[in-house]
Write a structure and sequence with these properties.
By secondary structure, this protein is an alpha/beta fold. Helix content is 36%, strand content 19%. It has helices at residues 42-53, 78-90, 93-109, 123-134, 175-185, 213-230, and strands at residues 5-8, 15-21, 30-34, 57-61, 116-121, 139-143, 162-167, 191-196.
């Protein structure tokens, strides 16, 4: 199993498996790392480890735990990519955001870390937007979030900073959807959107064929500065 911790659900009826990486000394804050459709795989664990190295408590919950425990998929393998799509199609996002809220509460109450940020990728990018609109997380970052244009009616509820990384050649987020995101969010002073010209979905993947080193480095630098300003 890639997870090493159990986080109680809000109703106490179950526990969310999570990979937790701890910094040396007192955490400067906490970062929740939300997976793509491929589970808490080596790339997500590495991202959590990187946040811990920067002094944050990092928590990567197993988003698909209600469907199947311990999913780890490789996005560069076509069959595994499609398997991940299947899990996403069956995922209950409304229930899933309650799990995110449970992780936020656990960090603040059990780990005694007051400031909490959240960063998500792909499906996790959508969850980052939902967390900004539906929870009291202190700051959120979404990389190439899918379906955000369909939830712009929730933008008025965003009360804390939200940063979105948008590759303009994203095969899963067409130009019309990107325009809708800009139209609906550019006027919101809590929200910042960065476009990455000519890049496709997954450009900030930790490993693998989808990664664009230059753009990933730039986006991650912006994310790191954003959390330093808003989380700790």
């Amino acid at each position: 199993m890639s997870t090493n911790t159990q986080v109680p659900t809000l109703d106490g009826a179950g526990a969310i498996p999570a990979y937790v990486a701890r910094p040396e000394g007192t955490p400067r804050g906490a970062i929740i790392v939300i997976q793509e459709i491929f589970g808490v795989n080596p790339g997500i664990r590495q991202k959590a480890d990187d946040w811990a190295a920067l002094g944050y408590l990092a928590v990567a919950p197993d988003v698909f735990w209600r469907q199947k425990l311990g999913i780890e998929l490789n996005p560069d393998v076509a069959e595994e990519f499609q398997e991940g799509v299947g899990y996403m199609m069956k995922h209950d996002f409304d229930l899933g955001i309650q799990d995110v809220e449970a992780v936020i509460h656990w960090i603040r109450r059990s780990e005694n870390v007051a400031k909490v940020g959240l960063v998500g990728y792909c499906m996790g990018g959508r969850i980052a937007y939902m967390a900004a609109a539906r929870t009291d997380v202190d700051a959120s970052v979404g990389y190439y979030g899918v379906g955000i244009d369909q939830m712009l009616n929730e933008a008025h509820a965003i009360a804390n900073p939200l940063l979105l990384h948008v590759p303009t050649a994203d095969g899963f987020v067409p130009a019309a959807s990107q325009k809708a995101m800009h139209d609906g969010l550019d006027g919101n002073h809590h929200v910042t959107l960065y476009d990455y010209e000519g890049l496709d979905h997954g450009f900030a993947d930790t490993f693998g064929a989808r990664r664009n080193e230059e753009a990933a480095t730039l986006a991650d630098k912006r994310t790191e500065e954003f959390f330093a300003a808003n989380v700790g």
